[in-house]
Amino acid sequence: MAAKALHFDVGDYVVYPKHGVGRVIELQKQEIAGMQLELYVLRFEKEKMTLRVPTNKAESVGMRKLSSDKTMREAMETLKGKPKVKRTMWSRRAQEYEAKINSGDLVSIAEVVRDLFRAEDQPEQSYSERQIFEGACSRLARELAAMEQIDEPAAQEKILEILRAAAAIYNKDKVPA
Questions:
Q1: Residue 76 belongs to domain with CATH number
Q2: Which residue intervals define the domain CarD-like/TRCF RNAP-interacting in the entry (predicted)?
Q3: DSSP assignment of 58-100, as one string?
Q4: Which end of the chain has fewer surrounding CB within 10 Å, N or C?
C-alpha cells in the first residue's frame, strides 16, 4: 500500500458516514490476527460510542475531515430551497432518505432536512418521518456546531430558523386567495 491519502491527528473532528461527527481521540497500534494494524480511535459523544478504524481503511469507509466552508454554505442554501415532495410510497422514500443520510454528504443530508421539515401550520408528520427528520437534522447540526465551535442545540436552532423562513415563503403560495 502506497502513502496514505488521508491523515487525521489526535483532536481532529472527522465525519464517519454512518455515525456523523466524531473526534480522533487516539492513534493505536494493535496486533489482530497476526497483523500489525494502525487504528484511529474515534469518539462519538452523542452516542457515547468509541469506534476503531484501521488507518488504511479510513478512505474506503468514507471517513473525512469536516466539510469546507463552501460545502457548508451550499448545504445552508439547500435548506432555503423549495421542498421536493415525491409521490412514491413512504417505504421507498424512507430508504432514499436513509441512504442520503448515511452517505455522509452534507448537501444530501440538507436535502433530507429540507424535504421533511414541517412548519407549525403544516400537517403532522408520521412517527417515522419525524425520526428520519430528527436524525438528519442532528447530523447536520453536529457538523455545523463543530465547524462554528458552538453547541449542537445552537446549531440546530440556526438550521430551524432557516427552515422556518423558507417555509413562510413557500407556504404562502398555498393560502387560498
A1: 1.20.58.1290
A2: 7-117
A3: TTTTT-EEPPPHHHHHHHHHHHHSPPP---S-HHHHHHHHHHH
A4: C
pLDDT digits (tens, 9 = 90+) for 124-166: 889 999 999 999 999 999 999 999 999 999 999 999 999 999 9
The span from the CA of 21 to the CA of 174, in Å, is: 37
Half-sphere exposure for 27 (CA within 13 Å, toward CB): 10
| Domains: count for the chain | 2
Q: d(Cα 123, Cα 118) in Å, to the nearest integer?
A: 7
Same domain, 90 and 163: yes
Output the CA–CA distances (angstroms, integers) from residue 130 to 40, 91, 133, 138, 144, in the order listed: 33, 14, 5, 12, 21
The 10s digit of each residue's pLDDT in 1-23 is: 344 456 899 999 999 988 889 99
Gap between the Cα atoms of 61 and 171, Å rounded: 40
